Amino acid sequence: MLTGTHSEAASYEFTTLTCIPGIIHYNDTKIQLLDLPGIIEGASEGKGRGRQVIAVAKSSDLVLMVLDASKSEGHRQILTRELEAVGLRLNKRPPQIYFKRKKTGGISFNSTAPLTHIDEKLCYQILHEYKIHNAEVLFREDSTVDDLIDVIEGNRKYIKCVYVYNKIDVVGIDDVDNLARQPNSLVISCNLQLNLDRLLARMWEEMGLVRVYTKPQGQQPDFGDPVVLSSDRGGCTVEDFCNHIHRSLLKDVKYVLVWGTSARHYPQHCGLGHGLEDEDVVQIVKKKEKEEGGRGRFKSHT
């Protein structure tokens, strides 16, 4: 419905059997939306082709978990537990724990914040379970045992997730209000096409996409085809913008002019480390090629 791509829909479960891709055109950008088959309890162990479905979700920027508003809350907990079992951490940020293996020197344990869930002895026991006897561990926040294990494993994926409750037209207004007030939740109705515009806005907000428009020298900005950047993929600085256009462009940049909310005045001369914001206009000024043989009276004569 959002992409214009046909996807089989019916009143029974597991209608979608394969991954169905589609493109959403929103705010002058293209967002790929993948309609994945539903997963069941035990999907992390391979039941119901669960590992193939979860593998696709690992490479995404945002997970939309579509739930039935008329069913119990247990489905949300089951799906979240199955995703966490394969290393997906929903709506969590990486723990502030510095961990580095060493060849010698034993285990160095330090913390810059008071710890209430773990102590030095427990940390040693966990490292010994992983057969790690030489390492440096620094806690920058009050972390748990699970956070330390995630850092040691090093293969966890932290993804934002929005719980989308469908079929709100078959439940009462009080139930809809309770579902809408839950964290990271959104209520819609595909049958009556209710709140779909809010779903698109929420997707844009959670993904943190930044549109940057280019401006050739002496011409008007090109507002038709923006360069889309993301803090989760590549970054949103001027350097990331240049690399997105072409890898060889960075060495030829002399300075950059920026118009928009990230600039203090219009235009602002910026360096490569300047952070860009949504709907900024950027003009790149390249270095001039040096003339061979010098200039003026220093020019060589043959």
How would you describe the overall organization of this protein?
- The structure is a single chain.
- The relative contact order is 0.10.
- The chain has three domains: about 20-90 and about 155-205, P-loop containing nucleotide triphosphate hydrolases (Rossmann fold), CATH 3.40.50.300; about 95-155; about 210-285, Beta-grasp domain (Ubiquitin-like (UB roll), Roll).
- The N and C termini lie far apart (about 70 Å).
- The chain has a five-stranded mixed sheet with strand order 11-10-14-12-13. Strands 3, 4, 8 and 9 form a four-stranded parallel sheet that branches.
- With about 300 residues, the protein is α/β, with parallel strands linked by helices.
- It is flat and about 80 Å long.
- The model has no long low-confidence stretch (mean pLDDT about 85).
- It has helices at about 50-60, 75-85, 120-130, 145-155, 175-180, 195-205, 240-245; strands at about 20-25, 30-35, 60-70, 90, 95-100, 105-110, 135-140, 155-165, 185, 210-215, 220-230, 255-260, 270, 280-285.
- Pfam families: MMR_HSR1 (PF01926), MMR_HSR1_Xtn (PF16897), TGS (PF02824).
- GO terms for molecular function: GTP binding; GTPase activity.
- This is OBG-type G domain-containing protein.
- Keywords: GTP-binding, Nucleotide-binding.
Strand count, sense and barrel status of the largest sheet are: 5 strands, mixed
Mean pLDDT: 86
CATH architecture of the largest domain: 3-Layer(aba) Sandwich
Top-tier CATH class of the largest domain: Alpha Beta
| Number of domains as seen in the coordinates | 3
Total number of helices? 7
Categorize the overall geometry.
Answer: flat
What structural category characterises the helix and strand content? alpha/beta
Number of separate strands = 14
CATH superfamily annotation of the largest domain: P-loop containing nucleotide triphosphate hydrolases
Order of helices and strands: EEHEHEEEHEHEHEHEEHEEE
